[in-house]
Amino acid sequence: MAGELTTSEKKYAVGRLKSRPQFLAVREGEKRRGGLFLLEVLDRKEPDSQARVGFTVTKKHGNAVERNRMRRRLKEAVRLHAGFAMQPGHDYVVVARRDVLDASFQELAAELKLRVETRPKHRRSGDGRPRNV
């Protein structure tokens, strides 16, 4: 059948974020912006624990049917393409944008994998304002 996994494919186990305090804690972490979603990442400083992921789709992005479809597409992209790249001991929250519905699955999976694998850039010291030279 079309949906079955072959023996050469692997599923990567990724835990789930379920409670509001877990989601709120991740908001304090790093943010990686993309065209289809925002990825929030938090290092829990527990390298022996598995990575956990949560999904957020706000009500402004359509009715329940559309929001659930967005969530299902993101979950499947993580399961098939990005789970292996998630670092142990990290929490990830994927905040969907409306374009998730219209993008091809390959495009969605490629961007998700790219955002998960992206490492933070080092910021300059200071308050972020440009310097007057």
TrEMBL record:
One of its GO terms (molecular function) is ribonuclease P activity. Pfam families: Ribonuclease_P. GO terms for biological process: tRNA 5'-leader removal. The keyword Nuclease applies. It comes from the Bacteria. Its EC number is 3.1.26.5. It is an enzyme of class 3 (hydrolase). One of its GO terms (cellular component) is ribonuclease P complex. It catalyses: Endonucleolytic cleavage of RNA, removing 5'-extranucleotides from tRNA precursor. Keywords: Endonuclease, Hydrolase, Nuclease, RNA-binding, tRNA processing. RNaseP catalyzes the removal of the 5'-leader sequence from pre-tRNA to produce the mature 5'-terminus. It can also cleave other RNA substrates such as 4.5S RNA. The protein component plays an auxiliary but essential role in vivo by binding to the 5'-leader sequence and broadening the substrate specificity of the ribozyme. Belongs to the RnpA family. Consists of a catalytic RNA component (M1 or rnpB) and a protein subunit. This is Ribonuclease P protein component. The lineage of its organism: Bacteria, Pseudomonadati, Pseudomonadota, Alphaproteobacteria, Hyphomicrobiales. The gene is rnpA.
